[in-house]
Amino acid sequence: MTRMYYDTDVSPQAILERKVAVLGFGSQGHAHALNLKDSGIQVRVGLRPGSPSWDRAEAQGLTVGTIPDVVQWADVVMVLLPDTVQPRVYTEAIEPHLREGQTLMFAHGFNIHYGTIRPPAFVDVSMVAPKAPGHRVRELFTQGAGTPALLAVHQDASGQARDVALAYAWGIGCTRAGVLETTFKEETETDLFGEQTVLCGGVTALIKAAFETLVEAGYQPELAYFETLHELKLIVDLLYRGGLTYMRYSVSDTAEYGDYKVGPRIIDEHVRQTMREVLQAIQDGSFAREWIEENAKGRPWFNQKRREEARHPIEAVGRRLRRMMPFLDPVEVDPERWEI
Known about the structure:
Layout: E1 4-5, H1 13-16, E2 19-23, H2 27-38, E3 42-47, H3 53-59, E4 63-66, H4 67-73, E5 76-79, H5 86-94, E6 103-106, H6 110-113, E7 124-130, H7 134-142, E8 149-155, H8 161-171, E9 179-181, H9 184-199, H10 201-216, H11 221-230, H12 232-250, H13 253-266, H14 269-283, H15 286-296, H16 300-310, H17 313-323
Parallel strand pairs: 2-3, 2-5, 3-4, 5-6, 6-7, 8-9
Antiparallel strand pairs: 1-9, 7-8
Helix pairs in contact: 2-7, 9-10, 9-14, 10-11
């Protein structure tokens, strides 16, 4: 059985005696840096000159420097930049300043697994990947709790890579909830597969298809929104707490019957075969190559798709309804600027 590691399995000294650079101050970056600081660890944030996050990080009591400067200063370098940005930044601002004995860390295995970043043999390479958005990582930490995480060691030059990675997980609060050991390959491939088939791609496509089916049949868009999107949170909360069985225990017998009877008709063998093809594209690297190429071209298809999806009728209906429900603490995002 897979083992989970908790606070009692960690020697915090392995990270308390090291200086940590966190590169990036986005969703994950701000959470890691602040949690490490609150855990008593020496931490600096690395950003490009002129970054709009520079003042924001300093306002929260963090020391900020350029990426080359903090890499030279640090013993542990956690790279929390977007996947598609990492290879260029690594080549230009990280690799020239690495030295023997340092640890290079990631929160996702994409660039190591697909070979777009190839660290020198004299550094440790490890991963701590919290299984939650960064804002949740920070929120739970401040409440005295934590989020689960995955841990992996790709390269152990010092013989201490695993201990340092576990201690880092302690520093951001993840060993409070539990840390599961894996590999860069397994984390990358399962993470991409989950995002594409269920958590993002599968769920959004299913929601839109159901919404469109009801509206095309003449039902009110507002009712279609509630039935296909709004109530999803109620079901997810049940799944989160007790799995499929608890969800089925909690809903009506009619809903449970529909689950058993209709679910396999929606997710049929054709869908399963598509999932196998999606997984194959992840495993053989063709998805990664496609995404890297899209970024190299300036993201024309991606940016157009983002704008199109933001204009879908379910989004217009949803914005109108959420404004009527301030208890939701609704947020709106401009797809042209991607800001909340």
